[in-house]
Amino acid sequence: MRLVHTVAHLAPGMGGPSTSVPALCHAFAEAGEQVLLVTGSSEVGDYVRSLKKTVEVRFVSLGPYVAANFSFGFRRVLRDA
Q1: Of the residues 27, 37, 43, 52, which has the maximum number of CB atoms within 10 A of its CB?
Q2: Mind spelling out the 3-state secondary structure of 3-56?
Q3: How do residues 45-57 score in pLDDT, each as one tens digit?
Q4: Can you tell me the distance from the alpha carbon of 65 to that of 26, in angstroms, rounded to the nearest whole number?
Q5: CA 3, CA 34: separation in Å to the nearest integer?
């Protein structure tokens, strides 16, 4: 099964989804699932960088519509996933 998770930001020290979503992706990957993590964050910590061994991480531009919770980049990646 291919699991796709999205999170807008993964800045280190932010807590909440910035911590829990990568941890969830790692757990699914360790259980043998194929995992894609899509983020608009350009700032990531060592933990997210280390995930690239087991989790496919894609960085996409949030674009000009981020305030409206819409991103053409996210839409393209999710459509193709």
Answers
A1: 37
A2: EEEEECCCCCCCCCHHHHHHHHHHHHHHCCCEEEEEECCCCCCHHHHHHCCCCE
A3: 888 888 888 999 9
A4: 29
A5: 6
